[in-house]
Amino acid sequence: MHPFTLMRRMSEEMDRMFADALSGFPGSGSGRGGNWSPAIEVKQQGDQYIVCAELPGLKKEDVRVELQENALVIQGERKYENEENTGGVHRTERRYGQFYRAVPLPEGAEADKARARFENGMLEVSIPVAVQNQRREIPIETASAGGANTGGQSALESNAGTSTTGNQAGAAAGG
Asked: Model-level pTM?
């Protein structure tokens, strides 16, 4: 697992844990709905860093996306109201909850080229990332003819000859 993935997951779990802990305290603005933390998926596809957030029931106007100090911040407020008139009984249900998620950006993220799209309760933010060449072939050099090796043998060949000779000497002494 990539270290940044592990740190991101830990950060998300900490956000969720604090949100859960604070949801029951007076003044936290939670009410019956509680603080809400939307599910977020983070992935890198080619040279794009993509963050998807599930925001069911929200409109584009309820969500704010910004970049702050090497992090993508998604925040907003969920408002839900439902009224029913059944059998002479009027019932109103209201739920409110604010959310705030900060997703750390990888090195090389080109934040000024970020794009966000919101459709059917799904927010997708894509940020170009400079592809860092993590894989590099190392050329294999040959030993020079004028080096410590004699007779044009490589170090492996001369060591192989020595160990074979050593084994033969040991076998002759023991036999």
From this structure: 0.54
For position 49, which CATH number holds? 2.60.40.790
Q: What's the token pair of residue 26?
A: 């007076």
Domain encompassing residue 95: 3-128
126, 150 contact by CB (below 8 A): no
Predicted local distance difference test score (pLDDT) of residue 78: 82
Is residue 59 in a domain?
yes
Number of domains in the chain: 1
In a domain, residue 14? The reply is yes
pLDDT for position 53: 95
Task: For residue 85, list its beta bridge partners.
Answer: 90
User: Residue 42 falls within a domain, yes or no?
Assistant: yes
The amino acid occupying position 13 is E
Cβ atoms 121, 110 nearer than 8 A: no
Beta-sheet pairing, 115-119 with 122-128: antiparallel
Q: How far is CA 29 from CA 42, 92, 125, 156, in A?
A: 28, 19, 28, 72
